[in-house]
Amino acid sequence: MANLVDKSDGSEESIVGNEAEKRPISTVLIIIAMQTEALPVVNKFQLREDPHPAFPKGVPWVRYYGTYKDLQLNLVWPGKDLSLASSDSLPPPPRARVDSVGTVSASLVTYASIQALKPDLIINAGTAGGFKAKEASVGDVFLATDVAFHDRRIPIPVFDLYGVGLRQAFSTPNLLKELNLKLGKLSTGDSLDMSPKDEASITANDATLKDMEGAAVAYVADLFKVPTIFVKAVTDIVDGEKPTAEEFLQNLAAVTAALDQTVEQVVDFISGKRLSEL
């Protein structure tokens, strides 16, 4: 997901190794799906909410921003789903306002944020399910090497590859070595549970992790050639004995703390470095 520039002969050349390689990373966009995951990071970096973000009028998307060391940090999350909001005259019933999770919201906020903020680097941080068959445990934090979809099954030649949408994350060997994080492939779909067909697709993707936004973020970032890394903390074991929803809710708070700590370490490592130094 390196930036590209047009050459005089009409071909394209990667900016990585060109302009972007000559200067330290300046603007970082952190995309997080859920408020529970986002607020600890907001507090960690003392970010402020933008009361008038440069997003289309009426959307629920929320931007936090601030300066940390030499970085301009922007954290964007999709906000609460407006269709489930109660009227002003009535109190909302329990859990009526839910986070706008999933690939549609993730792709929209990624697009809008890239257009508005022009980031040098995107960090998609969040929680994910993990597979014990791939040696994932609750609380583990991974850097994803590859991202793909598992619920876009189009059994027509070439369309099948489009459906999977395999993309590589930006390579960060020095970051990996410094933080000693685990590596794994990430598979994305719009359902928290896992149907037999999804399971077959996830197995075909050779995935260690399962989430609901990563491949959507990767798709949009790749359109605009913005380098993107994926930091995922395991809340539940998909091929374990506990129901996924139950285990996810049980571990969300504790695992979010581990995610928060790792995101801080990642940002600290990025500060002052060029893309080639990651």
TrEMBL record:
GO BP annotations, alphabetical order: L-methionine salvage from methylthioadenosine; nucleoside metabolic process
Domain spans labelled Nucleoside phosphorylase: 28-267
Signal sequence extent: none
Gene Ontology terms for molecular function: methylthioadenosine nucleosidase activity
Superkingdom of this protein's organism: Eukaryota
Identification of the protein by name: Nucleoside phosphorylase domain-containing protein
Organism: Ficus carica (Common fig)
